[in-house]
Design brief:
3 domains; 458 residues; Four Helix Bundle (Hemerythrin (Met), subunit A); seven-stranded mixed β-sheet; alpha/beta; Gyrase A, domain 2; five-stranded mixed β-sheet; Rossmann fold
Length: 458
């Protein structure tokens, strides 16, 4: 990556709006902007951006030759007190495709380069403004769809995970220091730390890190939502419930069995939790080639689901209802599935229950269903609680698991009563895996993979 370049990009979403923001960062940011920015409309008062104080805003006019492009506000951020740690200018123009595009083209013509996805944040990382886990939190914050996802991203951006990594790293360094100091005095037979104490400290670290790793189940739901599949036999009311929850006619509803031949997906927020709903084809044996393929896809979605909501048509015959319930009981994992009797208002014989019956004509029954969905993910195996930090990123989870593996190997080394240099190697491996989380230890492939998922201009 070339940090010498001055980069620019439009930081606001494409489309019409009140304002657009064009961001410029790099050692020549002021020089690039000053060629087109004037403080008066007659262009007699040349801009003196290079002399302006940091964190100040200036009204003026952005020109392309003799053509006035727009009245703008220009905000100055001097290094190192900027988002990227470099000289940064943000130009606020009127919104729209044309104006921002003209300003951007002119900045590029005057020497700036169009920024790559996430390059502003990547520079913030490389310039030491934030660590890698905080950079990832920026992307998560932008994509947050619920309050819990927003809260989790803010905590990580503020450094909660970084602080944990720093404290854990220091504990490991302290152990390594004593082990390696003892190696320097091996001939004298001096013992600076008892091996039992090292083992206890290592075990405590493993327990603490494992508690953070276990929070990923929770964090995945916070970040990505709950993948909930609505399943059942044809005409069990799946599509009707799907539409009811979404408050729209998204799925086709018909009395003809097998109407839904492929899955349909939409998202909804219930009590602050994002549910990714999937309406599936009715589960049955079918001679129709297309419907059979839809049923195959339904089973795949069911296998990948975080939560399955199985509907049994309570208006069906008692024999079919009993057979359907037996099928559910034998086929589905009760730890991640719920069953409800649907169409309770049409039941030929009322099902003797209150909690497991729903009708789209009974709002209370649907509210009860929603509560059961929340309860299932909050108290079951799908959402396991964890004290303190919650990790939402798979990369962080893998790094922490590698730390645990390295510490476990150090325990084995201790049990075998091997010399201190072997213990030190295992502990240093743990340090390296910790460093991967915050970017102290990394490579270009990891960085490129992380920042390519950012939007341009951030």
């Amino acid at each position: 990556m070339n940090l010498v370049d001055t980069i620019t990009a439009i930081s606001t979403p494409a489309g019409e709006g009140g304002i657009s923001v064009i961001r410029i960062s790099g050692k020549n940011a002021f020089a690039v902007c000053s060629q087109n920015f004037y403080k008066d409309k007659n262009r007699k008062k040349k801009s003196s951006i290079e002399n302006e104080k940091t964190h100040t805003v200036h009204f003026g006019y952005f020109y392309k030759g003799n053509e006035l492009i727009d009245e703008v506000l220009l905000t100055v951020f001097r290094n190192p007190n900027s988002y990227t740690g470099e000289d940064v200018i943000e130009i606020s123009s009127h919104g729209g495709y044309l104006i921002a595009g003209k300003i951007l083209s002119e900045l590029i013509r005057k020497g700036a380069r169009h920024a790559e996805p996430g390059e502003f944040t990547k520079r913030a990382f490389l310039n030491g403004r934030i660590d890698l886990s905080q950079a990832e939190a920026v992307a998560d914050l932008i994509k947050a769809k619920t309050d819990s996802a927003h809260s989790s991203s803010i905590k990580q951006l503020e450094g909660s995970l970084s602080d944990f990594v720093g404290r854990t790293r220091q504990e490991i360094i302290n152990i390594i220091s004593l082990v390696e100091l003892e190696l320097d005095f091996a001939e004298e037979g001096l013992e600076f730390v008892k091996k039992d104490e090292v083992r206890i400290q290592t075990e405590n670290l493993i327990k603490k890190i494992n508690s953070i790793v276990s929070s990923y189940i929770n964090g995945k739901v916070i970040r990505e939502g709950v993948n909930l599949v609505i399943a059942g036999r044809p005409n069990s009311g799946k599509s009707s419930l799907f539409n009811y929850l979404l408050k729209t006619n998204r799925a086709i509803v018909s009395e003809v069995p097998g109407t839904t031949r492929d899955y349909i997906e939409e998202s909804i927020i219930i009590n602050g939790i994002l549910f990714n709903l999937t309406d599936t084809a009715g589960l049955r044996v079918s001679g129709d080639l297309i419907e059979s393929e839809g049923i195959r896809r339904s089973y795949k979605k069911i296998n990948d689901a975080d939560l399955i909501l199985y509907l049994i048509d309570s208006s069906d015959t008692p024999e079919n209802i009993r057979e359907d319930y037996d099928y559910f009981s034998k086929t589905f994992d009760t730890d991640k599935s719920l069953f409800f009797y649907s169409k309770n208002d049409l039941a030929r014989k009322k099902i003797p229950c209150k909690e497991n019956c729903i009708s789209l004509l009974d709002d209370d029954s649907i509210e009860n269903l929603k509560n059961e969905m929340i309860s299932k993910i909050s108290s079951g195996k799908i959402l396991s609680s964890a004290d303190g930090i919650i990790i939402t990123n798979l990369r962080h989870k893998i790094c922490l698991e590698n730390v645990v593996t390295a510490l476990s190997e150090a325990k084995v080394t201790l049990d075998r009563k091997m010399s201190g240099e072997f213990i030190s190697v295992d502990l240093r491996n743990a340090l390296n895996y910790l460093g991967e989380i915050t970017g102290e230890v990394t490579n270009d492939d990891i960085l490129n993979n992380i920042f390519r998922n950012f939007c341009i201009g951030k």
